[in-house]
Amino acid sequence: MQVAVFKLSKAGGLIESGYLALAAEALGQGSWEAELRDAGSNLGKNPKAFLDAVSALKTACAGGDAAEAKKTFITAARSLETFANDTKTADNLKFL
Question: What is the pTM (predicted TM-score) of this model?
Answer without folding.
Answer: 0.90
